Amino acid sequence: MKKPISCFLAIAILFSVILAAGCTGSTTTSTPTAAPAVTPAPAINVTSIPVQYANVNGVRIGYREFGSGEPLLMICGFNGTMDTMWNETFLGILASQYHVYIYDNRGMGYSSDTNATPAISQYSDDAAALMPALGYSSMNVYGASMGSSIAQQLVIDHPERVRKLVLESVTYSIRIPDTKVLYVLIEATALNPIASAGVKNEAEANLAWNGTWDQLSGINKSVMLAVGTDDILTPPNVTHQIAGQINGSWLVEFKDLPHIGSRYAPVEYGETTLNFLGVNESPPY
Q1: Which run of H or of E encompasses 202?
Q2: Which mean pLDDT values do the consecutive 10-residue runs of the chain (285 residues) have?
Q3: Which domains does the chain show, CATH number per domain?
Q4: Which of 22, 67, 177, 199 has the fewest CB atoms within 10 Å of its CB?
Q5: Taking a C-beta distance cutoff of 8 angstroms, is the pair 26, 254 a contact?
Q6: Global model pTM greater than 0.85
């Protein structure tokens, strides 16, 4: 067992590198070095797409949209914005079959904030309110890292808003022994005097989050869980635990990939996500 990290600077450096770089369920292990089955769709140049705004829950949410088809809402992870969070090849593959929406959580990027106490449930309430503001009663949802925490809370608190759900690099709590490295990094950010207000709020929301373990078995949506085998922040065994709680969920492991593996193997993650979203899982098949 690794010893706890004691140096604040080392924590900050590790966190910035990791984030900037990027059961009942059925299990598949994917090797990211394999040749793609088809030619990838053109990458999406995110910053070339105009930012639009929607007013929800007292804040102004900045978002972008591209592609066509059923709606797919992408929820950013910790310290992420729509300008920096997503691999553009990955987005291009998703947009080849879906109408993709990316947005900034309140207090981040182009989105405003209020003085409300930071909470994962507040971020999920924002996602739920954003959907009708965009013209939909429900959407497919993809959450990565903290975005997967928000997405879990979304499907628990607002199940009518979610069609299918993808949870990448997921945990049901940051306070369990398996996510000790993640907890230390989040706590360090919350105490960092030079962190931005939006990032500190996200850190405080994560630290205050009670988790979802007791409610996972009540999720009755089609869910896919994706994790890299080298993920040290949300390790694969945590994903296995969650898959065991969600009846019929998919569990896909990507060999040798770290946290938020879609940044490193965008074609494999993109095509796997399209496969999951496109499969009819309700009889008659």
Answers
A1: helix 197-208
A2: 31 34 42 49 94 98 98 97 97 98 98 97 98 98 98 98 98 97 97 96 98 97 98 98 97 98 98 96 69
A3: 41-277 (3.40.50.1820)
A4: 177
A5: no
A6: yes
